[in-house]
């Protein structure tokens, strides 16, 4: 018997991504988000949702671009910091000691030290309610060679991304591999 928990944003797993943007004065900023996901394969697109109150919201509206930086586990403290202070009041790059790199493809910065980055051009904005959804076309994906596997694509076990558990508001690492997609289900 299932118990109703009410209308909540309770789903698993949630990503932990860092959105990179520039403000009007070209100051780079980063903010943590968990409300996000891939939303189209062709053209490749990613959706992120931000409250209007965030500094990043105005930056994306102004510059029409953002990056999605995927942290590895060892950056969990920086990740949490980026989600608890606003770029309106502090320079998060200076405070964290991480390095901002200007994307050559979109008008946004990315974090040099994070292993994976998606460079995105804003193609659509949806006013939903408290959050506004930004859809970015992924112009390029850049990955550190250290997180690449044998076939030249990223290896989740090397990358060690972070997952957000909305139930307790905690960060988790990824678990074990359960099987190959489009394959394990064929075996009876
Ligand atoms: C784990 C975590 C997930 C978050 N997810 C979101 C999100 O999806 N959307 C959002 O608007 N804010 C989210 N936040 C809050 C923002 O990161 C926070 O308001 C931040 O200060 C915004 O920074 P900015 O003002 O520099 O843009 C999250 C914070 C944390 C710690």
Structural overview:
The chain has 188 residues and is mainly beta. The chain has helices spanning 55-63, 76-82, 92-96, 156-159, and strands at 14-15, 17-22, 28-33, 36-41, 44-51, 65-70, 100-102, 109-111, 116-127, 131-143, 163-165, 170-172. The chain has one domain (14-186): Electron Transport, Fmn-binding Protein, Chain A (Pnp Oxidase, Chain A), CATH 2.30.110. A hairpin with a 3-residue loop joins strand 9 and strand 10. The longest helix is centred in the first third of the chain and has 9 residues, at 55-63. Flavin mononucleotide binds next to strand 3, strand 5 and helix 1. The site of flavin mononucleotide has 21 residues, from strand 3, strand 5 and helix 1.
SSE blueprint:
Blueprint: E1 14-15, E2 17-22, E3 28-33, E4 36-41, E5 44-51, H1 55-63, E6 65-70, H2 76-82, H3 92-96, E7 100-102, E8 109-111, E9 116-127, E10 131-143, H4 156-159, E11 163-165, E12 170-172
Antiparallel strand pairs: 1-11, 2-3, 2-6, 4-5, 5-10, 6-9, 7-8, 9-10, 11-12
The protein binds flavin mononucleotide.
Flavin mononucleotide binds at residues 16, 29, 31-35, 49-51, 54-56, 80, 83-88, 164.
Give the beta-strand count: 12
Q: Which structural class best describes the helix and strand composition?
A: mainly beta
Provide the helix percentage: 10-25%
Side by side, the strands of the main sheet go: 3-2-6-9-10-5-4
Most strands sheet: 7 strands, antiparallel
Low-confidence stretches: none
**What amount of the residues lies in strands?**
35-45%
- Rounded to the nearest angstrom, the radius of gyration is 17 Å
**H/E element sequence:** EEEEEHEHHEEEEHEE
User: Judging by the overall fold, what is the CATH architecture?
Assistant: Roll
- The CATH superfamily bears the name Electron Transport, Fmn-binding Protein, Chain A
Count of the separate structural domains: 1
Mean pLDDT: 97
CATH topology: Pnp Oxidase, Chain A
Give the CA-CA distance, first to last residue: 29 Å
Bound molecules: flavin mononucleotide
């Amino acid at each position: 018997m299932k118990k109703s928990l009410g209308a909540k944003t309770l789903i698993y797993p949630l990503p932990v991504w860092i959105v990179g943007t520039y403000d009007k004065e070209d100051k780079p900023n980063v903010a943590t988000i968990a409300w996000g996901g891939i939303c189209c394969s062709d053209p490749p697109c990613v959706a992120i949702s931000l409250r209007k109150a965030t500094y990043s919201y105005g930056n994306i509206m102004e510059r029409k671009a953002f990056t999605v930086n995927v942290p590895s586990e060892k950056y969990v403290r920086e990740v949490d910091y980026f989600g608890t202070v606003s770029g309106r009041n502090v320079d998060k790059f200076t405070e964290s000691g991480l390095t901002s790199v200007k994307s050559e493809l979109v008008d946004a910065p990315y974090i040099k030290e994070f292993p994976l980055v998606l460079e995105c051009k804003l193609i659509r904005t949806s006013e939903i309610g408290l959050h506004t959804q930004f859809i970015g076309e992924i112009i390029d994906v850049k990955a550190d060679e250290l997180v690449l596997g044998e076939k030249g694509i990223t290896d989740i076990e090397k990358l060690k991304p972070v997952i957000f558990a909305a139930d307790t508001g905690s960060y988790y690492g990824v678990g074990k591999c359960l099987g190959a997609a489009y394959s394990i289900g064929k075996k009876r």
